[in-house]
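Structure (tokenized):
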């Protein structure tokens, strides 16, 4: 336990220092400016305004907190303060992902997965600007980890905390939470990775899921409540309908084919061609050795990838939601070679790992 705590703390510190060192080197992002503007309005007017889309209420609240704290240390630039929000949450994702990978796979996979996620170009770059993706991912990963812990230890507060974290992710990025809901349902109903977690009957698991989703729904509703009152409701739903109309493409074969290829190219640029091929190859290995993990990762990836192929406004940062699953797949296979007794396999695995890292840095 102490060893895992030391590893996770080291990963967090290294990831945080890397992001603090790089945060001042990037240009300001339009989404960051928008988030900072709404956060300042919350501080000075006391009213929670929405960002175009689902509103992102908790992201605005967290951003306003960072602006407030930054003012105490004489950091007067609100945009830079919101940038540090992503820096902190981006670094926090790494130890959480370490423990999640440890719960799903093994120690070697956990260490390599956490390192590659920290250096992943899309994730690293996004965690240097004040946007909503890294805080949302943090709460999603934490919700998954707490749910897996609940399956092993059967402590009710773990399920409640998991539901609250998942609700927080929905209050930050509602669309991402919807895409991850099948994963949480699979974990609570189907996924069993330890013998001691098989003693709950199906009916009891369904009740637990209903309880979980009730807390999630209540949490999201409370944060979105300011948008549903008379003063904001009409404008909020009007812009939300417009946002969906201009964002989604339903049945256009030419567009879907082009969007599919664009998403694949984004994944290759993010993971490198070598990492992408290893991740796909790993699906067969994981299916043969750990079918519950295979289905979990497939359910994690598939809904996001399908939606992104219908998204007119697709950008690499949207794929942050499913990048951890691809990294976990690739590192599972690499770790299999690392623990083999033959030095050839170990050297090959390490060579691949250290080849992917500079490619990450090149694309960054």
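Design, position by position:
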């Amino acid at each position: 336990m102490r060893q895992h705590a030391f590893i996770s703390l080291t990963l967090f510190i290294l990831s945080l220092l890397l992001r603090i060192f790089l945060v001042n080197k990037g240009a300001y992002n339009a989404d960051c400016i928008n988030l900072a503007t709404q956060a300042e309005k919350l501080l000075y007017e006391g009213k929670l305004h929405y960002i175009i889309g689902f509103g992102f209420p908790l992201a605005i609240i967290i951003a306003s907190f960072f602006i407030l704290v930054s003012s105490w240390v004489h950091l007067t630039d609100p945009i830079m303060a919101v940038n540090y929000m992503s820096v902190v949450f981006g670094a926090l994702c790494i130890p959480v992902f370490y423990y999640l990978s440890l719960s799903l796979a093994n120690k070697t996979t956990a260490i390599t997965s956490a390192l590659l996620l920290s250096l992943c170009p899309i994730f690293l770059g996004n965690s240097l600007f004040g946007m909503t993706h890294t805080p949302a991912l943090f709460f999603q990963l934490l919700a998954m980890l707490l749910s897996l812990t609940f399956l092993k230890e059967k402590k009710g507060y773990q399920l409640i905390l998991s539901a609250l974290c998942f609700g927080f992710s929905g209050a930050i990025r509602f669309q991402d939470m919807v895409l991850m809901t099948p994963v949480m349902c699979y974990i609570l109903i189907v996924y069993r990775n330890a013998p001691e977690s098989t003693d709950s009957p199906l009916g009891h698991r369904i009740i637990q899921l209903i309880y979980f989703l009730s807390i999630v729904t209540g949490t999201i509703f409370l944060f979105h409540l300011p948008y549903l009152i008379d003063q904001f409701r009409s404008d909020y739903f009007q812009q939300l309908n417009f946002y969906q109309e201009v964002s989604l493409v339903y049945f256009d074969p030419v567009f879907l084919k082009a969007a599919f290829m664009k998403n694949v190219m984004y994944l290759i640029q993010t993971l490198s061609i070598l990492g992408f091929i290893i991740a796909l190859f790993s699906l067969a290995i994981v299916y043969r050795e750990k079918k519950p993990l295979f289905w979990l990762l497939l359910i994690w990836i598939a809904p996001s990838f399908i939606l992104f192929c219908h998204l007119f406004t697709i950008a690499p940062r949207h794929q942050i939601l499913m990048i951890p699953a691809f990294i976990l797949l690739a590192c599972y296979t690499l770790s299999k070679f690392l623990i083999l007794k033959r030095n050839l396999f170990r050297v090959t695995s390490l060579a691949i790992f250290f080849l992917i890292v500079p490619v990450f840095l090149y694309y960054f």
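Reviewer-requested clarification: The radius of gyration is 21 Å. The first helix runs from residue 2 to 22.
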